């Protein structure tokens, strides 16, 4: 490898090696927001209470379909490890999400985050003319912040 001296006295090799060291250090870059702001979308499917499949126009005449996950939200799950109460709550949360979004006049995502603009999955709040999906799920007791211990029961102990 040849080394060319820059007028400040720093070598190109040193700059290149420093750049590689920075990349190798595990430093992560900020998530990419290819579609900033509020963007109207059409609901295609509810995958889970916190995951929906939507379609929008990336550019006029260029439709795009993406799976959107709500950020920072945990929902009850219907898994073999779940108790009956959590399974029931998971079914209620899924039905609530379907109904809430089906009844909305308009659905939006805001500052959709992706790793690259070619991704088919993104993270974004889902907003409607009736409010934030995450907020209403939490208000109904069908979701909670993902910072809550996952072993915490979804059902009230009496």
Describe the structure.
With 158 residues, the protein is an alpha+beta fold. It folds into 2 domains: 1-30, no CATH class; 32-145, OB fold (Dihydrolipoamide Acetyltransferase, E2P) (Beta Barrel), CATH 2.40.50. 25% of the residues lie in helices and 34% in strands. It contains 3 helices and 9 strands; from the N terminus they run αββββαββββαβ. It has helices spanning 12-24, 84-103, 133-139; strands at residues 32-48, 51-59, 62-69, 73-74, 107-114, 121-123, 126-128, 131-132, 144-145. The strands form 2 sheets. It has a 7-stranded mixed sheet. The chain is globular, with a radius of gyration of 22 Å. The relative contact order is 0.18. The model is unreliable at 10-30 (pLDDT under 50).
Q: Average the pLDDT over all residues and give the rounded result.
A: 83
Work out the radius of gyration.
22 Å
Encode the helix/strand succession as letters.
HEEEEHEEEEHE
- Our estimate of the beta-strand percent is 25-35%
Largest sheet: 7 strands, mixed
Distance between the termini: 72 Å
What CATH first level of the largest domain would be assigned? Mainly Beta
Work out the oligomeric state of the chains in this entry: single chain
Q: Helix/strand/pairing class, anyone?
A: alpha+beta
Number of helices: 3
Sequence of strands across the biggest β-sheet: 6-3-2-1-5-7-8
CATH topology of the largest domain: OB fold (Dihydrolipoamide Acetyltransferase, E2P)
Query: Runs with pLDDT <50, length 5+?
Result: 10-30
């Amino acid at each position: 490898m040849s080394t060319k001296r820059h007028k400040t006295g720093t070598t190109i090799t040193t700059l290149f090696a420093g750049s590689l060291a920075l990349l190798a250090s595990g430093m992560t870059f900020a998530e990419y927001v290819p579609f900033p702001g509020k963007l109207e979308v059409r609901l295609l499917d509810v995958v889970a209470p916190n995951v929906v499949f939507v379609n929008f126009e990336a550019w006029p005449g260029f439709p795009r379909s993406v799976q959107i996950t709500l950020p920072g939200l945990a929902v009850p799950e219907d898994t073999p490890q779940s108790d009956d109460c959590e399974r029931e709550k998971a079914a209620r949360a899924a039905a609530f999400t379907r109904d809430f979004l089906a009844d909305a006049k308009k659905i939006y995502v805001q500052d959709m985050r992706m790793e690259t603009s070619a991704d088919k999955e993104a993270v974004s709040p889902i907003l409607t003319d009736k409010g934030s999906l995450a907020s209403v799920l939490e208000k109904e007791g069908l979701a909670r912040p993902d910072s809550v211990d996952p072993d915490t029961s979804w059902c009230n102990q009496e």
